[in-house]
Amino acid sequence: MRLLVLLSITALFLGSNAKQFEHWYPFYRWTLTGEGNAPTCLKNYAREVDKFGPQHSMTCKTLVSCIYSNTKEIDKADMSSALVLLGLTPTVLGQIGPTIHNKAQLCFHYPVLGLLCVLGAPAMAFGMPWAKTDPREPPQGNAFASGEKWIVGSTEKPAQPVPTLTRLLQYLIRLLIYLIAAGAAINVFLNAWTLGQQTVVSWKCTSSYLELVWVVTTLAPMLFAITAYSMEGSKRTSEKKGWALWIRSFYSLSNVAGAGHVIFGTLVFSSVLFIGTRDALGVVGRLTGSALVCQFITALELERVEEESERKRKRNEESEKEMKRKEELEKGESIAPKGMQCGSCLARGDSIAGGLQAQGD
């Protein structure tokens, strides 16, 4: 997790200081660099960068205007189609990938894997604020109980010993899942980095890191959702009725932040310039692939969590029945001596009554 945070900060720093207009997507690379007056536009831009600096807005806007005046109308129409496709991407990916609630569940039970899936599927489907949610039962244990549970998700010893080969195979499968999730997250980071370096955002043309900001800020809604989920499952929360309002408030904040995240992503992706439809399809395809992988992993892991919870519930029911059976047996054993004592008392009373009657005779 620390490595991913460090990677995000480094990428944002490098993206904010990188020199723009040096790399382009392949389909329109020649059009933007070597066709017509494009070389002259780039030379004028390099001269103005040396004079005013790369962060001066006028140097960027002047180059964009020069390149667009040199671009054919058919190419402009193609780039406009790419903007429509990219602008719809955050909303579409939110319907493909895991929901906020599912991501919060995964982050609570498997924090590292949940973080990877959150970054691998940054778009999210948000719900209605202040909507009533179904309460859940308090968990049997906390995901932060030990270091082992961060990886395998459970510290409970199995009822029967597991063979060494089977245990090794299970760990290899878990490692493969983590590697796939890490690959999905890295794919999203590289895709956002490339999009920021090889395109220009129309309303912030001097910044090449806005796509990375969109990826990283997906953690903000998740913090609210994870807080609400952990509060909802706490045994202490179930005893305090006033906390239900706090839980609903955190869920609502996560939905509002998720809506803001989708709006920000739509604003950024629909404003990128100098990318064609074919290249935009590649960008959307890579994001979709990562979202599908993270959705599959999330569904798989939450199913495992549900199965483990069901097994724990059955074991708890069996243990409760066993305890009741023992209590009933103990009560029966305690009643039996009392019955015997009462029987002896009756026998003694009969003998005394017989003796008194004999004396009377």
TrEMBL record:
Transmembrane residue ranges: 108-126, 175-196, 208-229, 250-275
Signal sequence, start to end: 1-18
Location of region: Disordered: 307-340
Biased composition (Basic and acidic residues): 309-333
Protein keywords: Membrane, Signal, Transmembrane, Transmembrane helix
Highest rank taxon of the organism: Eukaryota
Record's protein name: Uncharacterized protein
Protein's organism: Penicillium cf. griseofulvum
